[in-house]
Amino acid sequence: MTASMQEPPKRPRARDSIRAAAAAELRQLGTFNTSTRPWQMPLAAALASGLPLLIAAALGELPLGLPASLGGLVFLYLPNTSLSHRMAWLMACAFGMSASYCVGLLSHLAPVLQVPAVALVGVLATMVMRFYSAPPPGGLFFVMAAAIAAYTPASGHALPMLAGLFTLGTVLAVLVAFAYSLLVVTPRHAPTAPREDFQFVVIDAVVIGAFVGLSLVAAHLLGLTRPYWAAVTCLGVIQQASVRAVWSRQLQRIAGTVLGLLLFWGFTRVPVTPWTVAAAIIGLTFLIETLVVRHYGLAVVFITPLAMLLAESADLAHGLPPGVMQARFLDTLVGCMVALAGAVCLHSPNFRQWIARPLHRMLDRQGRQ
Q1: Cα–Cα distance for residue pair 202/204, rounded to 1 Å
Q2: Conformational region of residue 323, where left means phi above 0, alpha means psi within -120 to 50, and beta covers everything else
Q3: Would residue 369 count as lying in a domain?
Q4: How many domains does the chain have?
Q5: How far, in Å, are 14, 16, 23, 331 from residue 11 at the CA level?
Q6: How many contiguous H segments (helices) and E segments (strands) does the chain have?
Q7: Alpha-carbon distance 291 to 302, whole Å?
Q8: Does residue 72 lie in a domain region?
Q9: By three-state DSSP, how is residue 361 classified?
Q10: Burial 333-356 (b: 16+ CB within 10 A, else e)
Q11: pTM, rounded to two decimals
Q12: Distance between CA atoms of 37 and 25, rounded to whole angstroms?
């Protein structure tokens, strides 16, 4: 039979393509990375976030320890550089997170500013982290601080007190980081040179911040009771290197959130006291920082109850707030969907050019003044 009479090669069927894509996703979900972190690092991170809660539990004032515990998460920005650089960087991050928390609190003066305030923090935090080529978690905890502060039920004299407690938590975390840096020898790397790339630093930051704000708007329109989780989820998913990576990250986030909600529900079945909350947050932080560099999806299983304990512990003594688990899942789903749409725009050359033109014109006008 001649070549001209041979049948053309068959195209792969859609079912085979779907099966291959599903197999690739399963392989991705089952892949564990190696870790070079010393075991003392997760322990120090757990202490930075847990010590304020232990102090608050001893005083019988657990709600006062929660903002400080949230501020203790700044420890996770500790870089593997020289002692002088790492402490200067961590103190700068502590200032930035405290400022982000205060911006969120200030939006209580005019609730209409809640969405713009969180979106602005998302833009500025992403811009700074990208300029200095900071590794994950990037601007995540800056947005988390601003979002939780913006939607924390508080007013009047409670606002400056919350700001002070959060700042004290960051100061304690810096002290823990200093002790850790003196006692534990880790590899030292030279600081990464600033990345002066307008597209990567400015355009990406503006797009990411805008979609963080859109996730809050979507959560409000859907009537969700905890919209701040949509913003945190959106930023955690969208700041990936490609649409493919965003897709994988959102699948891990959704699956991990479901399992994490079951873990949180199990915790609420036991007697909830200030000491059990403090112990749970310390243990969860240790597990997260041990696992997150190995498998993000598995770490999310513990990130979900940790985040909920930081936001909901003040009310757990009176029982699990109605609908809180459903709200957490829906917020996560909304945040993931908005992040996926944002990733498509973020990695579209035409969309980036459309955003870049007005920004360039604005900067040119400022330069001529």
Answers
A1: 6
A2: left
A3: no
A4: 1
A5: 9, 10, 19, 40
A6: 15, 0
A7: 9
A8: yes
A9: helix
A10: bbbbbbbbbbbebbbeeeeeeebe
A11: 0.87
A12: 27
Q: How sure is the predictor about 141, in pLDDT bands with cuts at 50, 70 and 90?
A: very high
- Give me 102's structure tokens: 């205060």
The domain containing residue 103 runs over which residues? 38-364
- How many Å is the Cα radius of gyration of the chain? 22
Measured between its terminal Cα atoms, the distance across the chain in Å is: 78
Residue 204 and residue 138 in contact, taking contact as beta carbons nearer than 8 Å: no
- With respect to residue 10, please indicate whether it lies within any of the assigned structural domains: no
CA within 13 Å, CB half, 51: 21
CB contact at 8 A, 259 and 301: yes
Pick from 234, 222, 218, 216: which is nearest to 107 by CA?
Answer: 216
Write out the two tokens for 295: 């498998």
Residue type, 108: H
Report whether 266 contacts 309 (CB < 8 A): no
Q: Is 26 part of any domain?
A: no
Q: Looking at residue 145, what is its pLDDT? A: 94
Q: Which two tokens stand for residue 10?
A: 């068959």
* 250 has a pLDDT exceeding 90: no
Interatomic CA distance for residues 203 and 301, integer angstroms? 32
Structure tokens at 157: 């004299």
3 state SS of 320: coil
Quote the CA–CA distance of 144 and 73 in Å, as a whole number.
10
Quote the CA–CA distance of 90 and 134 in Å, as a whole number: 12
CB-neighbour burial class of residue 112 (10 A; exposed 0-12, middle 13-18, buried 19+): exposed
Check: CB of residue 147 under 8 Å from CB of residue 115.
Answer: no
Beta-carbon count within 10 A of 171 CB? 17
Q: How far apart are CA 248 and CA 242, in angstroms?
A: 10
Q: pLDDT tens digits, residue range 160-214?
A: 999 999 999 999 999 999 999 998 867 777 777 788 788 888 888 999 999 999 9
In the block, which residue shows the tokens 């089952």? 30
